[in-house]
Q: What sequence folds into this?
């Protein structure tokens, strides 16, 4: 899409009707008004109305938990579907998951309790105050050893460095400085996760070249792979 | 935003990491 906005993955089938005794849940994660949230569609494919919906999360890597109760107008009639958003916070119990961004969810209704796993896109945990002070950025960049730097290429990205800056900023990845060296734009960026982990990045953008070089530096190497994935998805979508 | 020392540090960082 040509329009730049907050990146939200398409809804996925988290609970197929065949495993939910007729309840199908399609869902995705996004971030709205400074909070992560789950956006879901509940579809009753059973032949009886459904009532008594509730949701609970297992412990997870970032302590995500529902901020409010699930709001589903009941009864959910046979063949009816309803869209719902569940605001989340990160003050829940923490347990490192493998994969890191996996979350186990239980949904209850009048028929049974159902369990499914979902993958949280890490960018919904990028906070709004993730712009690192420039002086702190330089010191941190030098302080993190080269062994903690991971490079990757983002392909098929026909974006100028200014477009990249804007798109990333809408997703709470902030450009701290920009320099142009030999026609190559170098962007120095920062982001902060809800648990206080900082990630520093350098983007090398050559005008007209659809491949962008991404270098990440962080002390928390566990998150690097997911951050790379987030950059790729934000910049390709 | 207008600290010339910091501006210079970023320029040096970018130059040191540029792939011509």
A:
């Amino acid at each position: 899409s040509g329009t730049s906005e907050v990146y939200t993955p398409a809804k996925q089938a988290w609970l197929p009707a065949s495993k939910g005794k007729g309840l199908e849940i399609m869902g995705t994660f996004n971030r709205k008004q400074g909070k992560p949230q789950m956006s879901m569609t509940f579809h009753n494919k059973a032949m009886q109305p459904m009532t008594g919906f509730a949701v609970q999360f297992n412990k997870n890597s970032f302590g995500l938990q529902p901020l409010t109760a699930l709001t589903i107008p009941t009864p959910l009639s046979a063949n009816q579907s309803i869209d719902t958003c569940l605001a989340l916070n990160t003050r829940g119990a923490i347990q490192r998951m493998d994969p890191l961004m996996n979350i186990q969810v239980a949904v209850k209704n009048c028929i049974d309790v159902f369990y499914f796993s979902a993958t949280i896109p890490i960018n919904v945990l990028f906070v709004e105050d993730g712009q690192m002070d420039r002086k702190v950025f330089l010191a941190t960049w030098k302080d993190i050893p080269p062994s903690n730097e991971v490079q990757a290429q983002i392909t098929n990205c026909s974006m100028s460095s200014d477009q990249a800056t804007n798109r990333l900023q809408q997703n709470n990845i902030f450009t701290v400085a920009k320099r142009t060296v030999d026609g190559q734009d170098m962007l120095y960026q920062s982001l902060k996760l809800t648990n206080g982990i900082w990630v520093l990045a350098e983007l090398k953008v050559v005008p007209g070249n659809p491949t962008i070089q991404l270098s990440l530096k962080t002390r928390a190497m566990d998150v690097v792979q997911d951050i790379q994935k987030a950059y790729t998805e934000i910049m390709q979508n | 935003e207008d600290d010339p020392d910091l501006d210079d540090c970023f320029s040096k960082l970018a130059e040191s990491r540029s792939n011509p």
Observations:
- The helical segments of chain A are 134-143, 161-169, 224-236.
- The longest helix of chain A spans residues 224-236.
